[in-house]
Amino acid sequence: MKNRTLTIVAAGLLALAGTASAQTPQTSFQGWYNGAKTGYSQTSGDAVNSTGSWTLGYELGYNWQSQGGFVFGLDGYYDYNAATDHDVSGTTGRLSIGSQAYGMDTKYGWASGPVLYYAKVGYGGLSGMGDASGSGSGFHGGLGIEYKFTPKWSVTGEWLYEAGNTGPANASLTNNNFTVGMNYYF
C-alpha cells in the first residue's frame, strides 16, 4: 500500500511538472495564500511498527518573490493525522496512535513560470492522539511543488517530515506526510 501510494504521488507530480513546463506565462507566487490538503501519513514511534493512515491539513502564509524567481515565504499550518493500530515490539499488543501537528514554516523556493519548487523548514508542536497521549515539539522539514493554473488558484504536492516526543515517557513519534492540496491567493 505504501509503495503504491508513493508511486501514485510521484507520477502525479511528474505529470504536473511536465504540463507546467509547456506553458510560458510568468505567474507570480507573491502574496497571501491559504490552502487545504489531504493525503497519506506514515506514523511510527518508539517500540511500535510504522503504519499508514489518512491526513488532512490547512495552511496560511505569505510569499515574497524576487525578479529572478526566488521565493521566500512564511506559513502556519495544522495537520490532523488519523489514528491507526500499531503492533507493539516484543508483545502481542496493539496501540492506536495518531497525532495533530501545528507550527510555523519558512519556505525557500524557485519559480519557473507557473511552477514553484520549494523546501520547507520549521518548528512546531506534535500532540499524540489515541494511546499516544501527550505533546511535544520539534523541528520538521519537507519538499514540494506547486502549480498555478490561474492567477488565484494552485495545486500542490508535498512531502513533510514531522517528529516530536510525546506522552509521560517522552516517547518519539514521527510522521511522513505525502499530500496533495489546493491554495487560494488573495
From TrEMBL:
Disulfide bond among keywords: no
Q: Which SUPFAM superfamilies match?
A: OMPA-like (SSF56925)
Q: Can you give the residue ranges of the Outer membrane protein beta-barrel domain? A: 13-186
Q: Sorted alphabetically, which Pfam families does this protein's record hold?
A: OMP_b-brl (PF13505)
Q: Which UniProt keywords apply?
A: Signal
Task: Decide whether keyword Signal is in the record.
Answer: yes
> Hey, what's the signal peptide range on this chain?
1-22
Please name the InterPro entries in this protein's record: Beta-barrel_OMP, OMP/PagP_B-barrel
UniProt lineage: Bacteria, Pseudomonadati, Pseudomonadota, Gammaproteobacteria, Lysobacterales
**What is the designated name of this protein?**
Outer membrane protein beta-barrel domain-containing protein
